[in-house]
Structures are given as C-alpha cells and as structure tokens.
Amino acid sequence: MALSMRSWIDSANDPAGDFPLQNLPYGVFRRDRRAALGVAIGDRVLDLRACARIGLLEGLAPATVEASQTDSLNGLMALGRACWRPLRERLTGLLGDPEHRPMVDPLLVAMPDADMLPPALIGDYTDFYASIYHATNVGRLFRPDNPLLPNYKWVPIGYHGRASSIVASGAPIRRPSGQSKDAAEAAPRFGPSRALDYELEVGLFIGPGNRLGEPIPIHTAEEHIFGLCLLNDWSARDVQSWEYQPLGPFLAKSFATTISPWVVTLEALRPFRSPAFVRPEGDPQPLPYLTDPSDQQRGGIDVTLEVRLTSRRMRAAGTPPVRVSRGNLRDLYWTPAQLVAHHASNGCNLRPGDLLATGTVSGPTRDAAGCLLEITRRGADPLALPEGEVRRFLEDGDEVTIRGWSEREGAVRIGFGECRGRIEGLE
Description:
This protein is an alpha+beta fold. It is built from eleven helices and 26 strands. The strands form seven sheets. Strands 6, 7, 8, 13, 14, 16, 17 and 22 form an eight-stranded mixed β-sheet that branches. It has a five-stranded antiparallel β-sheet with strand order 4-3-2-1-5. The radius of gyration is 22 Å and the shape is globular.
C-alpha cells in the first residue's frame, strides 16, 4: 500500500503509531454488552456491523457482508483471499477518503471504550518449536554436549495445546499448581509453581483450512493464513521439567495462553517479507514437501518483538517497565508456510479460527532470548530489575507486556498492539 496514503483520522497518521491506514488489523470488541467485528485505525475502532447496517459494504460478496455482522472472525477467516482483499480495499477507501467522513465518523469507537475480546472462536491450538536459537539454548541447559535432538533440523516440532485456556490481552494470569520434583527430593511435591515463565511467541490464525485427509501443499500454505497476532505461552518450568517425558508438555502449559486482540493480515505485512532463515552449511535442506522457491525467497517476516516487565514494587514507585529482551520473527528456523504445510501433511484438517503458535522466538544473542529460562540460564544468572529486585522466574504481581512492529525505510510502520498479562497468586 502506498507510503503516501493517509487517513482523515489524525491519530492514524502518527509515524510511531501501531495502526495506520496501511495496517487495518481485525479484532472483536464489545460495547454496550454486544460484540462486533472491529478494525483498528489510529486510536479508534471501526464497527463493521454498523458499516454493513448502513450500506457501506454494499457491492462486496454477500458472504463478506454477512460475516462482517457476526461476533467472531471465524466467518471472515473462512472466506479466503478472494473476499479478504475487496473488503480491505473498501475499508481503505472509507478510512482514507475524506468524503466518507460524515458517514463513517459516527461508526468509530474510541479504543478505551472498546472491551477487546479474543478475535476468534479457537477450536484447536498447536504450539510449535520453530526457533533454533531457543531450542539450542534450552537444550544446552539440560544436555550441554548435545543440545539439539536429531530430528530438529528435519521436522517442525510441535504439540497440541489447550484452546479453552486462551485469553485476551489484559486478563489476569493465576499462578498454576502442579507436580514438581527437585533433584534432591525423594518424591514430587504438589503446589504452586515456583518457576513461572513467559514465552515470547507469534500466533498464526488459520483461514479457509483443508478437508480431512487432504494435505495443504507448501506453495499454497500462505493462502490459509488469515493473519498474525502476538502470543504469550505462559509456562510453569518446574512442572514442565517433571512431567514432559515421555509425551511432552501438558499441565505446565495448559493453564493459560495470552493473545493480543488484533490480527494483522499478511497483506499488511507484505512490505516486510524477508528470505527464509539461512541454514548454516552442513544443515539439511527441508524435505521436498516443505520446499518452495517463493517461500525460501520471501517466507520470513520482519517483525521486531519486544518484552517488557514491571513488578508490583516498580508500579508502586512509578518506575516504568524495563525491557527484558528484543528479538525478531525472521529468526525462525521454519517459516509460517512450512508450519502450516507440515501440520496438514498427514491429512489433519485445519479449520477457520485454529491457532498455530511459532514457539518461543529467540535470537542469536542473550538480549534476544524469548523467555526467562534462557535469560537467567534456568535461574543461575538472575535478571536485575530496578528498585533492587532480581528475577529468576516470575513473581506474583509481575506484569509482562509483549509488543511487536514492522518498519523499514520506504514503508509505513505498522504495529500489533500489545499482549499483556499480570500474575496473580493463589490467595
């Protein structure tokens, strides 16, 4: 979308803002007890149901108009690019051309007045392990001489998570209980996690999906990605280390996953595409079903990802959040298209609104690590905070905020908003 395009909504033209005319992410908001689809523009939310009601979506496919009047994005996700693109073009015109202001302005809601909800009814949730830096850092903590398992460079590793405990940004996170066992203990204990962690991730919302038994070829995989959101896969590390063998993550992960409310479309991210991760010499190339020349050329996405933390003491003292890490989505070993193609390669049917997560996004340096497990080296090297505090893992009252944005010379900066959660104790 043209760099010069501007909205008649002044806040959308802030060069440091998240939601310019070139972005237009989708979400679901509630106002006056009724949920509706919304589009973020500057510091406002455009009500799509209201747009349809007064005829501003006339001429679009009937299915698009119908989906725009529902209370979740699933219907729109199911329609595919043939409907997504005309709707985006219509919204760009409504919010970019001042002649539409008299009709559109009354349909805008101030963001503080919009209660943001999860953007879709998520039927299934899969979490991958797509960052080789994260996999290597974590593996080195447990297997110093052999951090990566033999299959890592051949197959995108993932597990099926719990969709029912996915919550919207801002929802409180209650400290989970579970079994854990220290090496010196003769038997496991049950109680509140003493090693609660965050994980910096990105979520991929599935669009049309596929029929059961019909794989998704790698060259069409991106047609099934509606858009991206920020994601925090909260993790109880002490519970995880005790329970994960032999079948992988379970209760250590299923208590809560936070997602950001806005879904940024692939169309909005088009100026920020990058080559797929360059594999070092000696690494195997992806198998044919995971190989596509176009995906290798532009399968990566340049999204800066930042984590900030604030403690209860910091908030009381008026101390601003401290940046814990900053990484980039382009550092993933596997591209989003490869994750989708692999997930469906056995005929597994992906459905509109399903959520795929990248796994923790970490970079090659310590300040780009995507979780406290890596940053503190399993608690051995605590993180220093203002007000004289240190953290090995999260404490009650800690608030973690993830933000993401894309920017480069010659393109308008677009953002993802925030993904935020605060830890509550069990008392």
